[in-house]
């Protein structure tokens, strides 16, 4: 994870860590957990009981919007959830690959540390909130506050992102291949935002910035990691104007 | 928290199943609040018989004997026969009379009771307690009709009482359910009271419902009334508002209270969480989306 002031962390190292591709696993080795018969706690306990370093694959059926599925994973498991999930799916993830074949509710991959979470449909609000690392891919739209207070995670949204996305974002990259809603990047610190479409409005202290070679390169890697073929040259970079978080002597009388 | 669910049918073939489908949604919603619950059902002939008006009350007769006596008192005042039914903490009165006349007679006969709805299309049944238990006292599984709303309450802004339960129906065949809390409801309540509007509860949502009813009475349509509400009210809200002919959803500018809408050729449904919708026929192929902040989504019959 980069520090708050480093604008150009090692892109190659970041992306390499974030984008270990899912290994093809023979069907016979995939364990199925049917949530029509097992509880959320049983699923999560089963996943947590895997020995350290296990790369076992799981398929979770009948999620029907249940909350807190596949949370707190700590090893390189591969979990595929067949359908829509509720709140906080894959929260606090470390190392694991979690694929949601459907939509995700509030706070998918919140506080993720590493690994990869892929939502094939839409994500509700606060996707990737406060996440420190790893890669969150949302093929559809993300609702409000995507990447709120992100602290190092990379997020790639295939569609649009809602209002107040990347609010107080501290580190990491947010890529929006569609349009961004109101107040993008409000009070942003050092995270970088790339938007292909339009931005309804920029939040306080968030500005458009030039796309330099290193930005085109890191965006290309992020898009590729997310399995997308968008042209990096069509994106605009946004980031902090750095007028909010440095002390300004004219404001001394306010303290 | 609080949980909201609503179902607006487009396919009349689903009308016999309205209560069963709404009941499935309500019981999923119980995890967002177990203090109280309520439903608003549109077009059930057992609640709103053709050619009659229906008035629902809470804090009124709680037993069949008491309701029979109350119906006799209302009959005497109205000058027409009044039928009654007790559904848990709610009592219903129907008569072949105008809603306003029946309402006046019920108010006069039962001064301690609080009206929860009046009209020819809508009945509102509500009370305190666990939503699953209340659904059974409402006989929700047997309810039919073309539209319904449901609410489970985790009380924040006023006490756990039957009058503090949702839906709020303060105008004929109108009702509102709310997840969130209005910040400036006391100010708006005083303004509405200064205009001569009276209130049944201390609840913040009732202020929103009275505001919308006042706008509708002044000639606004639901969409305009809700846009005016967004301008006037501060706070957090996801609102579902129904009238005899419409079904509408709006969220505040911050939109932190959850809402999901699903739509098929056969129905439109709104819920606090996706999982409430999983029992609806054809949900697999529904168009599912989250409403944008301060955008009014409305469907007309």
From TrEMBL, chain A:
<dbReference type="InterPro" id="IPR012061">
    <property type="entry name" value="Glu_synth_lsu_3"/>
</dbReference>
<dbReference type="GO" id="GO:0016491">
    <property type="term" value="F:oxidoreductase activity"/>
</dbReference>
<protein>
    <submittedName>
        <fullName>Protein glxC</fullName>
    </submittedName>
</protein>
<dbReference type="InterPro" id="IPR036485">
    <property type="entry name" value="Glu_synth_asu_C_sf"/>
</dbReference>
Automatic annotation (TrEMBL), chain B:
<dbReference type="GO" id="GO:0004360">
    <property type="term" value="F:glutamine-fructose-6-phosphate transaminase (isomerizing) activity"/>
</dbReference>
<dbReference type="InterPro" id="IPR029055">
    <property type="entry name" value="Ntn_hydrolases_N"/>
</dbReference>
<feature type="domain" description="Glutamine amidotransferase type-2">
    <location>
        <begin position="2"/>
        <end position="301"/>
    </location>
</feature>
<keyword id="KW-0808">Transferase</keyword>
<dbReference type="Pfam" id="PF13522">
    <property type="entry name" value="GATase_6"/>
</dbReference>
<dbReference type="InterPro" id="IPR017932">
    <property type="entry name" value="GATase_2_dom"/>
</dbReference>
<keyword id="KW-0315">Glutamine amidotransferase</keyword>
<protein>
    <recommendedName>
        <fullName>glutamine--fructose-6-phosphate transaminase (isomerizing)</fullName>
        <ecNumber>2.6.1.16</ecNumber>
    </recommendedName>
</protein>
